[in-house]
Structures are given as structure tokens and as C-alpha cells.
Amino acid sequence: MAKISYYTEEGLNRLKAELVELKTKGRTAIARQIAEARDKGDLSENAEYDAAKDAQGLHELKISKLEEVLSNARVLDESTIDVSQVSVLSKVKIKNKKNGAEMTYMLVSEEEADLKSGRISVGSPIGKGLLGKHVGDVAEIKVPAGVLEFEVIDIAR
User: Fold this and answer.
1) CA–CA distance, 5 with 116 (Å, rounded to integer)
2) For 28, phi and psi rounded to 5 degrees?
3) How far is CA 110 from CA 3, 73, 102, 130, 143, in A?
4) How far apart are CA 40 and CA 76, in angstroms?
5) What are the residues facing 6 on neighbouring strands?
6) Alpha-carbon torsion 95, 99, 105, 108, what sign?
7) SS (H, E, C) the chain
8) Are strands 138-143 and 73-75 parallel, antiparallel or unpaired?
């Protein structure tokens, strides 16, 4: 059974644009490489042709995987998000109980995760640990470095 993923409108549009790019410009570039390699002579001993065909296979696999992701993608209406608890697309302000550092993250799908822009995956250890928490709750999250305690300070859309 396929896993349904939830996206922001922006994230879903970015994936669709990537798929169009792969299907058009990507396929054209691969076809050009194959044609150039084919023109170089005997295909049985042509390493360049073999490499181009391998690249084509990998490219088509990437297209197939992206199509699968898009077929199971759903856009989440941010206005319907319950801000009483942490869920997908929630903006969560947390405080590290050990060092007092405060951070704000938005929980998103794995494909949209980007730590630099403050977006963490709901599948990450911190994302999983925060899901379902309410303001004031303390989440004990097991990470590779040990167990961290975060207090949920605020939840927003």
C-alpha cells in the first residue's frame, strides 16, 4: 500500500515542475547523448553508448519514482490545521531544556524538508517526537547523540 504524503501548495508545485523538467529537457539531453554515442561506431564495443543507456535507465527510474510520489501526494489546507497540538505543517517553537536554546521549525513531508529554512521532516526523530504534543509538553527525543528534551513553547500555522 502506497504511503500518502502531505505537502504545501508550494512544495507540490515544485515537485510537479521537477517532473516536467525531467520529462522534457532531461529526456532530450539523454537522447542526444545516445545519438552522439551511436554515431561513433560499433555499439558492441562502445562504452560511451553503454554509459548513455545506463544514464537513460536511471533517469527513467527517477521519473517513475517522482510520478509515484505525486500520485500519493495530497495538499494540506493550512487553514484547517489544529494549532492546539503539533501536526504536519505546524510551526513549532521549542526550547532545549539542557541549554535553553529556542528554535522554531515547521513540520513538513520528507521531500520538502530543508533545515536551513527551518523545515524539518515529520519522519525525522525530532519531527516524530513533537507530533501530537501540546504547548507546555516536554518531548524526550532519542537522537544519535543521545536523548534530548524539548519543551513546546508555541504552536502556530
Assistant:
1) 21
2) -65, -45
3) 12, 12, 23, 15, 17
4) 51
5) 74
6) negative
7) CCCCEEECHHHHHHHHHHHHHHHHHHHHHHHHHHHHHHCCCCHHHCHHHHHHHHHHHHHHHHHHHHHHHHHCEEECCHHHCCCCCCCCCCEEEEEECCCCCEEEEEEECHHHCEHHHCEEECCCHHHHHHCCCCCCCEEEEEECCEEEEEEEEEEEC
8) unpaired
User: Which three three-digit cell numbers place residue 135?
Assistant: 504547548
pTM score, whole prediction: 0.66
Contact 83, 66 (CB under 8 A): no
User: What is the rounded end-to-end Cα distance, in angstroms, of the chain?
Assistant: 30
Contact of 81 with 87, CB cutoff 8 Å: yes
Per-residue pLDDT of the chain (157 residues; tens, 9 = 90+): 567 777 888 888 989 999 999 999 999 999 999 888 888 877 777 788 888 889 999 999 999 999 998 898 888 776 766 778 888 888 999 999 889 899 999 998 888 888 898 999 988 999 999 998 999 899 998 888 889 899 999 998 7
